Amino acid sequence: MLTVRVNNTDYQADVTPDTPLLWVLRDVLGLTGTKFGCGIAECGACTVHLDGKAVRACSLPVGLLNGRPVTTIEGIGNDPLAQAVQKAWMDIDVVQCGYCQPGQIMSAIALLRDNPHPTDTDIDAAMSGNICRCGTYLRIRQAIHNAAGLSA
Amino acid sequence: MNTPATPSRRHFLAGATGLIVAGLLPKRRAFSRPSEFYQGPLVENTDPAFTPNAYIRIAPSTIPGDSGITLILPNVEMGQGIYTGAVTLIAEELNVDPDQVALEAAPPDDAYVAADMGTQATGGSTSTIFEWTTLRQAGAAARLLLTQAAASRWNCPISDCTTRQGRVLHTPSGDSFAYAELATDAATLPVPKTIPLKPAKDWTLIGRSRHRVDSRAKVEGRPLFGIDIRVPDMKHATVAACPVMGGTPGDMDRDAALRTPGVHAVLTIKNAVCVVADHYWAAKKGLEALAITWNEGPNASIDTHRIYSELHAALAEPKPIIAKSKGDAAAAMTRAASRYEATYQQPLLAHAPMEPINCTIHIRPDSADVWVGTQVPMWARDSVADIADLPKDKVRLHCQYIGGGFGRRLEYEYVTQAAQFAKQVPYPLKIVWSREEDLTLDRFRPAYVDRLRAGLNTQGRIESMEFRVVGPAVVARWEPAGLSPNGFDEDLAAAISITPYTFPASRLDYVRREAPGVVTAWWRGVGGTRGLFVVESFIDELALRAGADPVAYRRELIRDQPRARTVLDLAAEKSGWTTPLPKGHGRGVAVQFLFGSYLGTIIEVDMTEPKEVRITRVTVAVDCGQPVNPDQIRAQIEGGMIFGLGTTLFNEITLSKGRVQENNFNLWRIMRMNEAPPIEIHIVQSTEEPGGIGETGTAAAAPALANAIAAASGHRLRTLPLLPALKGA
């Protein structure tokens, strides 16, 4: 049994330590907001926060967490910055299929926490690890600017 | 579940008597989710409800604050915004607030068969085209019956009644009933003879940008997609099919797999193996432990080079299928002052939607449930019924939001495969393909070779055009009835046989060559994407040879097409087409009529770095007829363009020894945010019938980009993808 701390709750998971956090979240804990896209940290669909930093859950063995807190898309609802980001996403209807968007949003929140007023270049650098197959990048970039304004 | 007796909704909506009718149809007991945001145990609605047609259900007893109104959406939502569009069309005529209705995904049912698709299908940018009248009529018919029910209660003429925000109002007294209060009465009323639709001037929803119905659920990460389904006692599984088409599993170490922690079972079918476990990771480790040896079969020698050589060789075919002919193209070609010829090559392409292929399925002795994202729900259901040896009405298929379709989920072989495994176990099975499986076992957009010939007069203007298309006929497998009697696949020449251009004489012929070693399938933009690249590249070549401006040259050819001219001129004007660019920069143009919509596109590139291309600006003018939701038109063109640009630059599926080489996003490059150019979209106001929009931007990308590269660098690239071609130029 491994203990993982997710969204301020401790969970027991009967998995081997090499199991990526992604599958503990999705298949063991039932937190399916974090998505499976590639399994090799190339697409960013599985982005969550570990100690507040964006990480790719598909390539993070759960045995390496050592009790550090994980936050997923399901756990951000009370954070004003996260709310500003989600509102900015809705205001300009960023989503299309929406599958990659939890990962995009988790990357965007981590960016804005470190850099409250990013330039286009800052945004591109922080967000280029997140693939969107529907091609919503222009709206994502705009929404991040708008969220920076909302949370200022 | 009850199935309406009517074979086609076209019949019951627009049959001889006109109409949709309460009472004629058996009550639909929809089993899909009560709302798009709720995903719990399935609820069967047994209350008698007002179900005037397949798209609307109004429950008579309501919870306070609940309108009782449910809209049933005939097309699947895979990002294209059709749920929002469908709600807009129904709500416009029903006179309800779109935010006050519950939504359901339509189950597989004859009622939702689009006659032109041959089955219940979402694809080919057809949804708005097909539903434009149907869904407004559905809303209007329900409104009419509800109004009649209210007028009876008030014992007043219908003309004293109006409807607003889900209520019928008695104008003289100010009294009103909620629709839900009238549902039981309305359900007994006879057929209206005609359904008047609102004139455009009375629209309050159509033509205005509205927020998507699914934005909130998607930004909150709610469990919407097939891959998110969790049902009681479900086990997780992943699969490996033989990486060479037609091969079968040979030796494998079952004991090693079963010793893997969390693994429960190893299942096999003719061409694939499935490992069942407590969670995906355990299943994946179990699959690795199997160390399967494959019997690869006869396709193990196939490589991409062979596919292309066979296509090129077929250019010499002496007896092609003559698909279309205008005038005597051959004679005009002979008479012409000069002739010009060019050959273009396009690759196999994968779909790579962000949501990997998955299917959750429970087969019991007497029934089955399937939770899956599919663009063809009826075919998927029928396939499960066939495999499980169950009557079709014992298979309940629950349509899920789709995390990207692009044509991939017009195939249902993954549902068939899932059923073959699931019938071997008593519990529900959730099968998730790895990304590697998703890419290498995809069904691919075909590779094509096209040869175009022009006969030109002394000014370089076209006297005769000859098109020869070589490639597979996807429709022959997907829907054989769709193949023309002469063997022609109309789709693959979509941008050739219906073009805004007028040529004095032309001939289109086709040589069918199926690609060995792969299954080919629909892909975003289908025939329009592949055809527009060759036509618009070739026209550009002819313009440059004639020493003409590419926009002006096209304008002459579309003299008789005012809508095409408008979008071409608007795109040129907004892009600053005539403004000179610095050395190493260039602009390319494409104009198109596809999916019922006209686009003019100008792409600007910077090629000052040798053998690199940076897309600096994209300008699109679009006339897609009457816009339903302008912001979603923009969204589809933005996204479709980026989808097309990335593909045009980077993507080609290659086979080596029968195996697909590009197996994850490290090898299958997707355009990322830092590469996405600014895209500016201008919508032409139009009252024509709506056209499709989801695939138009994708089709525009390749020709406009290739033409821009030619303008900036002088390199005419006739082979896709462009980036490797440019490096080798």
Automatic annotation (TrEMBL), chain A:
GO terms for molecular function: 2 iron, 2 sulfur cluster binding; metal ion binding; oxidoreductase activity. Keywords: 2Fe-2S, Iron, Iron-sulfur, Metal-binding, Oxidoreductase. PANTHER family: BLR6218 PROTEIN (PTHR44379:SF2), OXIDOREDUCTASE WITH IRON-SULFUR SUBUNIT (PTHR44379). SUPFAM superfamilies: 2Fe-2S ferredoxin-like, CO dehydrogenase ISP C-domain like. Pfam families: Fer2, Fer2_2. Residues 1-76 form the 2Fe-2S ferredoxin-type domain. InterPro entries: 2Fe-2S-bd (IPR002888), 2Fe-2S-bd_dom_sf (IPR036884), 2Fe-2S_ferredoxin-like_sf (IPR036010), 2Fe-2S_ferredoxin-type (IPR001041), 2Fe2S_fd_BS (IPR006058), Beta-grasp_dom_sf (IPR012675), Diverse_Oxidoreductases (IPR051452). This is 2Fe-2S ferredoxin-type domain-containing protein.
From TrEMBL, chain B:
It comes from the Bacteria. GO terms for molecular function: oxidoreductase activity. InterPro entries: Ald_Oxase/Xan_DH_a/b, Ald_Oxase/Xan_DH_a/b_sf, AldOxase/xan_DH_MoCoBD1, AldOxase/xan_DH_MoCoBD2, AldOxase/xan_DH_Mopterin-bd_sf, N-heterocyclic_Hydroxylase, OxRdtase_Mopterin-bd_su_IorB, TAT_signal. PROSITE patterns: TAT (PS51318). Residues 220-298 form the Aldehyde oxidase/xanthine dehydrogenase a/b hammerhead domain. Pfam families: MoCoBD_1, MoCoBD_2. SUPFAM superfamilies: CO dehydrogenase molybdoprotein N-domain-like, Molybdenum cofactor-binding domain. This is Aldehyde dehydrogenase. It comes from Acetobacter oeni. The lineage of its organism: Bacteria, Pseudomonadati, Pseudomonadota, Alphaproteobacteria, Acetobacterales.
